[in-house]
Amino acid sequence: MHKEPVTRELFDQVMVPNYAPGSIIPVRGEGSRIWDQEGREFVDLQGGIAVSCLGHSHPGLLSALHDQAEKIWHLSNVMTNEPALRLAKSLCDLTFAERVFFANSGGEANEAAFKLVRRYAWEHHGPEKNEIISFKGAFHGRTLFTVSVGGQPKYLEGFEPAPGGIHHAEFNDLESVKKLISKEKTCAIVVEPIQGEGGVMPGDPEFLKGLRELCDEHDALLVFDEVQSGAGRTGHMYAYQMYNVTPDILTSAKGLGGGFPVAAMLTTAHVAKSLGVGTHGSTYGGNALACAVAQKVVDTISQPDILKGVKARSDRLCKGMMDIGERYGVFSEVRGAGLLLGCVLTEKWQGKAKDFLNAGLDEGVMVLVAGANVVRLAPSLIIPESDIDDALERFEKAVKKLTA
């Protein structure tokens, strides 16, 4: 059968137009390098938006997928499976958690978390205690509930009426939270320890500690959305460990499967009781294939030398980007933690982050944006140092051309 060539034009003919992908169609990846249909090579600092934490075609992930594919792909939640139980046990051993719920995406893990906090409050305190406090600039997913808890109104436009009982405070401003919180009505505070889509904005340690205290005082649960900051990204298994602030519920996805769709909501045995039989579910959540791959990811990234290596790579990348920023007057700071970094554009270049992404592609390096004023980097946690140097060299060429 004759196959039609696959081109970027085909996207416009067959896909819903909610994305605007670039003209390049990657067809192969190995480690931190990607090749497109024409055989052009790129150094990947996007990491699939903090997903491909072990790069592309990682031998360990390939073999985990292959081994499980020959055994069992999918059952249903009428039965459990070995990979799901092993993975849940590993996540409990590595974190504060005692119970795990599996889903397929960060949005789904957050949806489960937000339903759980309401149900917990309903069971323990009554139906009036149903309000959620989250933050401006936050991103928690694209379902109607998660996009309402998120703090970026543009993503809700045209989809109202939104679920009620949600208030948005100012990130890193404890006073703004105190004005909204109440013992009678607040069931939870939801926060990204490092705001990802909101511009790679790290939470202030005192602010996050203060949120924990406010929750304790007001009988509210603290939810950490670690979809982007988790799974080794900061050089800690989860960012809450870096901050020394323990939430009641934590959500994980993106890097958890290294590119295979899988997500988890982690919580304590006490809080988990509120999601009793029949209260929530997911057809594919806890799928044997996904859990087998995620197990290999977790076993790999939780090794102390891998987590230490994240720090070294982070320092190298930060320094390189700051040097470029200073030489060409484009970045005022590089912020974030580990390999979740945001290069903040100087006043002169405000609003032009996408131009840097495009200029980078022309020189064979893939970077991301986080809003219009931040160039975001989220490469593989094991990217070779030589690839970092190569990427920096290519990115400098791009910046040189852009600023000429």
UniProtKB/TrEMBL annotation:
UniProt keyword list: Amino-acid biosynthesis, Aminotransferase, Arginine biosynthesis, Cytoplasm, Pyridoxal phosphate, Transferase
Record localization: Cytoplasm
Annotated catalysed reactions: N(2)-acetyl-L-ornithine + 2-oxoglutarate = N-acetyl-L-glutamate 5-semialdehyde + L-glutamate
Chain residues that bind N(2)-acetyl-L-ornithine: R142, S282
Pathway as given in its UniProt record: Amino-acid biosynthesis; L-arginine biosynthesis; N(2)-acetyl-L-ornithine from L-glutamate: step 4/4
GO CC annotation terms, alphabetical: cytoplasm
PROSITE patterns (UniProt xref): AA_TRANSFER_CLASS_3
UniProt key word Lipoprotein: no
Modified residues (N6-(pyridoxal phosphate)lysine): K254
E.C. designation(s): 2.6.1.11
Domain of life the protein comes from: Bacteria
GO biological process terms, semicolon-separated: L-arginine biosynthetic process
GO MF terms held by the record: identical protein binding; N2-acetyl-L-ornithine:2-oxoglutarate 5-aminotransferase activity; pyridoxal phosphate binding
Record text on cofactor binding: Binds 1 pyridoxal phosphate per subunit.
Cofactors that this protein relies on: pyridoxal 5'-phosphate
Database matches in InterPro entries: Ac/SucOrn_transaminase_bac, AcOrn/SuccOrn_fam, Aminotrans_3, Aminotrans_3_PPA_site, Class-III_PLP-dep_AT, PyrdxlP-dep_Trfase, PyrdxlP-dep_Trfase_major, PyrdxlP-dep_Trfase_small
Ligand binding (pyridoxal 5'-phosphate): F139, D225, E226, V227, Q228, T283
Main location: cytoplasm
Other notes: May also have succinyldiaminopimelate aminotransferase activity, thus carrying out the corresponding step in lysine biosynthesis.
Complex and partners: Homodimer.
Family: Belongs to the class-III pyridoxal-phosphate-dependent aminotransferase family. ArgD subfamily.
PANTHER family, alphabetized: AMINOTRANSFERASE CLASS III (PTHR11986), SUCCINYLORNITHINE TRANSAMINASE (PTHR11986:SF113)
Protein name per the record: Acetylornithine aminotransferase
Species assigned in the record: Marinobacter similis
